[in-house]
Amino acid sequence: MIEIKTSSLSDGEYNRGVFATRDIEKRELIHEAPVIPYPNEDHEHIEKTLLADYAFEYGANHTALLLGYGMLFNHSYQPNSNYVINFDNDTFEFYAYTDIKAGEEILINYNGFVDDQELLWFDKE
């Protein structure tokens, strides 16, 4: 259903993105990514690495690194997918927010909500 390909949206050395290999219907589960959670106070160590740009908030007291394709979805303020945190299963579940055509890049809003238009750190510079 999904694959990693070169994205025109990403810049820099790692210009990967997640793309649909077939048409995906609105609300369809796209990917379930297991997480590696860690306490927020440990994030100062991650901040010294490239992984800092890929970490997700995981509840009030934790941050998480996502496995699978979880950390490879690119950002859009008009995303075609969203994610739900499943704390019971320790996963992030990515769902189609709109119908997605085969070959289309699958995008999430890094703010955590599809309609959140607050500028992110990389757009404030």
TrEMBL record:
<keyword id="KW-0808">Transferase</keyword>
<dbReference type="InterPro" id="IPR009207">
    <property type="entry name" value="SET7_MeTrfase"/>
</dbReference>
<dbReference type="Pfam" id="PF00856">
    <property type="entry name" value="SET"/>
</dbReference>
<protein>
    <submittedName>
        <fullName>Lysine methyltransferase</fullName>
    </submittedName>
</protein>
<keyword id="KW-0489">Methyltransferase</keyword>
<feature type="domain" description="SET">
    <location>
        <begin position="1"/>
        <end position="111"/>
    </location>
</feature>
<dbReference type="InterPro" id="IPR001214">
    <property type="entry name" value="SET_dom"/>
</dbReference>
<dbReference type="InterPro" id="IPR046341">
    <property type="entry name" value="SET_dom_sf"/>
</dbReference>
<dbReference type="GO" id="GO:0032259">
    <property type="term" value="P:methylation"/>
</dbReference>
<dbReference type="GO" id="GO:0062122">
    <property type="term" value="F:histone H3K37 methyltransferase activity"/>
</dbReference>
